[in-house]
TrEMBL record:
UniProt cross-references to SUPFAM superfamilies, sorted A to Z: UDP-Glycosyltransferase/glycogen phosphorylase
Pfam family, one: Glyco_trans_4_4
Sequence ranges assigned to domain Glycosyltransferase subfamily 4-like N-terminal in this UniProt record: 20-188
Protein name according to UniProt: Glycosyltransferase subfamily 4-like N-terminal domain-containing protein
Keywords: Glycosyltransferase, Transferase
InterPro entries, alphabetized: Glyco_trans_4-like_N
Matches recorded under Gene3D superfamilies: Glycogen Phosphorylase B
The organism's place on the tree of life at top rank: Bacteria
Length: 380
């Protein structure tokens, strides 16, 4: 059996987040056809057993070094790499990769390939890069002057890594096409969806919308602020209308003035139970790309979505979702669901059935297998 090792920037046992959830899904799906293990950066070090895919998988934790600005600056100057790509190339991570004998090494995020490219395994193992999201896009949109300086360097590094890889998977069809147009012929859209869960009874919900997202991730904070700005127009004249916000607040940011009807709940103990009380999910993302876990979470339980093009991305085609990019269109779509529970219920049922059918047909499983074994030509 072909052996596969994933190299991850976060600990899939101890940490949560959209990229971690998708990496865990990829591991679970890959374990159907491959002998899977993982290496991750973590606050701890050592080898543990990861309880995924109905069996125990080996996880090697490599202690994540603290940011040392002077040392990082030297690395950037010597290597001529961007801050992010220099930051994640570490001797300990290289040593962990060197110790593997896997046939395939999967870098989860482009920058996690740097240690592989500087390891002894380069040339003897097949390198697959799963980009998740373009850091150049995020830095340009959210890091001010530094982001504008780093963007071209990040893009150059992302293209260099992609060209060095044997295959590249993206979570956005347009991103895959971007790479193919620049000579990365092995780039493909990795259209993963989540296994179906208990379907929510949308028809029985109160006029409540939900916004989900950890706001330390800059695009989520940006979307949160946009949702608050639109809420007065969304809720105008609708009795008992609510917008509930779920997810950790951005560190160090003072609470805004919340409009009437908005509740910031942070983490909730029973997420599925709470989502079962919501009419629809809102995703007014401005800076998009990569992982759309919020959309996938909504689809798996049949919760309708009002999203922008940046929020929905290529999943619009997968799930037949409309997008709403102007303030007027977004407000109108939200109000439509708040005032018509039956319409929301139909939209949720359609979403649930599409997701369920994909899982029954094992479409996500086939997408992962095709990426890892390289036997099928790249698709969107």
């Amino acid at each position: 059996m072909t052996s596969v090792t994933l190299v991850m920037s976060k600990d899939p046992v101890a940490e949560r987040g959209g990229d971690v959830e998708l990496s865990r899904l990829l591991i679970t799906l890959a374990a159907d056809d491959f002998d899977v293990s993982a290496i991750c950066l973590s606050p701890e070090s050592g080898v543990v057993t990861m309880d995924l895919a109905s069996t125990g998988l080996e996880l090697t934790r490599v202690r994540k070094p603290a940011v040392a600005p002077h040392r990082l600056a030297v690395q950037v100057l010597r290597s001529r790499r961007s801050l992010v790509h220099a930051r994640f190339d570490t001797p300990d991570l290289r040593a962990a990769i060197d110790s593997t004998r896997s046939d395939v090494v999967v870098a989860e995020h482009s920058y996690m390939a740097e240690s592989f490219l500087n390891s002894a395994r380069r040339g003897s193992a097949r390198l697959v890069v799963n980009t998740h999201v373009s850091e150049s896009l995020v830095w340009r949109a959210t890091r001010g002057i530094l982001g504008r300086i780093e963007e071209p360097r990040l893009l150059r590094d992302e293209l260099r890594v992609a060209r060095a890889a044997d295959a590249v998977g993206t979570f956005d069809a347009d991103e895959a096409e971007f790479y193919r147009a620049r000579g990365v012929h092995g780039a493909r859209w990795l259209d993963l969806t989540l296994p179906p869960a208990e379907q929510v009874a949308v028809a029985d919900t109160p006029p409540r919308l939900v916004f989900m997202g950890t706001r330390d991730w800059p695009p989520n904070q940006e979307a949160f602020e946009y949702a608050l700005a639109l809420w007065p127009a969304i809720s105008a004249g609708i009795e008992d209308a609510e917008l509930c916000v779920i997810g950790a607040k951005k560190t160090g940011v003072r609470d805004p003035v919340y409009p009437a009807g908005v509740r910031d709940l942070g983490f909730v103990d029973d997420l599925h139970g709470f989502l079962g009380t919501c009419r629809a999910m809102v995703a007014p993302i401005v800076t998009g790309g990569g992982v759309r876990v919020k959309i996938l979470d909504a689809a798996r339980i049949g919760l309708p979505v009002v999203g922008t093009s940046a929020a929905v991305g290529s999943l619009g085609e997968t799930f037949g979702l409309s997008t709403h990019d102007s303030d007027e269109a977004f407000v109108a779509a939200c109000r439509g669901f708040l005032t018509d529970a039956s319409s929301a219920a139909r939209a949720g049922a359609d979403l649930y059935e599409i997701n369920r059918d994909r899982w029954v047909r094992r479409a996500p499983h086939a997408a992962v297998a095709a990426l890892l074994d390289g036997t099928q030509a790249p698709t969107r």
